[in-house]
Amino acid sequence: MASSTSLSAPASEGANSNNIVYKFSADYPAKPSLTVDQVHRCSEALKFFKDKLQKPYQIKQEFQSLQASRPRPSDVMRSCSVALDGANLSKNRYTDVIPFDKNRVVLNSCKDHRPSARGYINASYITTSSSEDISRFIATQGPLPHTFEDFWQMVLENRCPVIVMLTRLVDNFKTVKCGDYFQAEDGPREFGNICIATKWTTTTDTSLELRLLEVNHKESEVPPLSVLHIQFPEWPDHGVPKDTLAVREILRRACHVPPSLGPIVVHCSAGIGRTGTFCTIHNTIQRILVGDMSSLDILKTVSTFRSQRIGMVQTMDQFVFCHDAIVDELEDLLSDYNKEIISKWIRIPVHGFGVKRRLLPLSSLLGNNVIWSLAIKGKAKKYEALFSSSSSSSSSSSSSSSLP
Questions:
Q1: Does 193 share its domain with 69?
Q2: What is the pLDDT of residues 80-111, one digit of tens each?
C-alpha cells in the first residue's frame, strides 16, 4: 500500500514513440498469474538457488573469479577512449567508473552551450537477451548538476518509461552521492531546453518514493513523456538492504511496464554496485519466467554485465543478496500455486517422445506405475502412484498410445 504525500496519485498514462500506452499507478502491482510451465520453472529455479545458498564457499569462489577477471587499467584506457576525452572528463562522477565505447549511450550532438565530445554521457546499455520480453537497462551514474540536461535528453531520446534511483542525494557522512535532477513538486523545472513537471508523488510502506514525471522539450508540440521515478534511499553504498522487500517491490513495478516501451534507467551513485545488483535480480527473474533457464547462472549474468559496464555488482554481500532476493521472489510467486496446479497437472518422465518430461493430466495416468514431482509451496516432493499392477506391460503400452 502506498501513502500519498504532497500530490495525489491517480493512474497516469504514458506512451512511447510506437504509441504503446501504459497506465502508471501508485497502487501495489498485482502478483503475475503463472502458467503451469512457469510454475515448474520457478520451482526448479527455487530449488537450485536454495541449494546454492547452502554452499557459501561456491558463491564466494564465483565472486572471487569475477574479481580476478577485472580489466587492467591499460585495457580500460583502450576500451573507454570517449569517456577519457578531455572534453568529457568533467562529466564523470568517478574517474575509475566510465562506460565502454562499444555500448555507451550516445546522445544526439549537442548544439547548444554544453561542452561535449561525440554525444557523451556516462551511461551504458545493459542486456543479456535480444528477446522483446526481456527488459533492457541503461546503467548510469548519479547525475551531476552540469549533466542534468544530458540525463533528461538521454531519457527522452531513448523513451525511458522508468527511472530506478538506488541512492540518497547525500549520505550519512554528508557526501554528495547524486544531484537533485528530479524533484519538481513546487512547479516545473527547466534544464536547458528540457522541462520536467511532477504529476504526483507518494511514499510506499517499504520507504520507496514514487514520482510520476512528465518530461518534454520546451515549446514542443508533441505530448510529454510520462516517466515513473522510483527512489529507494535506504540502500547503503557498497552494502545491501536489511531485507529484500523494497527491492522486490521495485522489481514488481518495473516488470509491470512492457519492455517494448523502452529501456529502464537504473542508477545509484557510480552506477555499478547497487545498480548491477538490481539489474541482476530483475533480469534473472524475468528470464526464468520466459523459460530461459540459463539465467540460473548468476556468475555468467554478472560477468556479462561487467563486460558492458565496469564493476557491476561491487561486493560479495551484493552478490549474495542477488541470490537471497531471487529466492524470496520465487517463493512469493509460487505461494499461491499448490492445490490448483496439483489437482490438474503432474509432471512425469516420458521416454520415446523426443523430450525427457511432459506435462500430463491426471486422467491420462490411470493404469501406470509412475513417479512424479509436484511443486508444493516452492518445495519439490516426490509422490509414487501405485495403481493395479496386473498386465503392467500391456497397460503401459496402451496408455502410452493415448498420451497427449
A1: yes
A2: 999 999 999 999 999 999 999 999 999 986 55
